[in-house]
Amino acid sequence: MTVVVGCKRPLFVCAIFMVNCSFVKYATSEWAELKKSPISMSCTVSILIPACNAERWIGSAIQSGLDQSWPKIEVIVVEDGSTDQTLAVAKRYESGRVKVMRQDHRGAAAARNTALREAQGDFLQYLDADDFLSADKIQEQLTLLRENPDHLSVSSSVYFFDGKDPDSGLEERSGAVDTDDPVKWLIEFLGPDGPFGTVPCGAWLTPRSVAERAGPWDVSVRSPDDDGEYFARVVLASHGIRASKAGRYYYRKFVRGGSFSSTYSEVLLQGRLHSLNSKADHLLARTTDPRAYRALANRYLDLAFGAYPSFPKLTDEALRKAREMGDTEYRPRFGTWKGELLRHLVGWKAAKRLNAAFHQRRASSH
Questions:
Q1: pTM of the shown model
Q2: Residue 309 near residue 279 (C-beta atoms within 8 A)
């Protein structure tokens, strides 16, 4: 028995020693990789949430930030003059990881700038108060950016209707490609051949260094496209894009038009024109590619189409800008076969006038 016990003890110690050696070797190699990488486990991600009249959803937005598998997270909520209980709900989450601020109502862009000034993170994750993140989103994107400094990462987006199962929504990967040519990416995204892409601001993960080169959000006008204008500058300030195969941004839609970007008014159309002018200025400062001019002409024509016939001056300004870009053969679609038939028969302006007259007559009869 003594011999047997004597034989087992050295083997047991040896086994422990071998396991420890393997662990040390693994841990050392992992640490070496982290030391070589521009992104280490000490990197903090700031999740920036503007919130106005979002008491129903702000809790799930904050919680999705806290539930991230990446451990170094700070959440900054800027309550933008709500008239409901948004502030009270957000305050329930306040802690060492969650900071809640309040400001008078100045709009989402101003609230994001406030959050940006407070952020201490190495990377920025924007999150609208009625949306949320999958738990793996940030870690998956940081894994990509570890080997690609000064790049952006974009995840897929899931569009779902409020009150429905989020995972039953439509998943889209618009813009989710790998590229080291941000100028070309933006040209193709704007749509030189007709349709254009959309990426919710929360699908991006942005290094602070890139955001600082791009500058703050534009608060000079109210624009439904303030996020598109901001991220056009961010893309151009980056070294490229890496698409995340995992991780999702969940974008909530509303059946009865609860989205600011869908609101129709002259003020907001003027804001959209302002944002498009900014995109044009920044893109054309970097390229003379004819496809860039054609893409911009297409987008100016879209704006003219949306403004006509209600706002003729704005229509004329957008058409003038389209001509400056070299004009285009592209024509926006009506979305119905009747509208398309009218457009082919009488032209898009006459078709729009007839459509407006029909809806006015229908409204007055009710």
A1: 0.85
A2: no
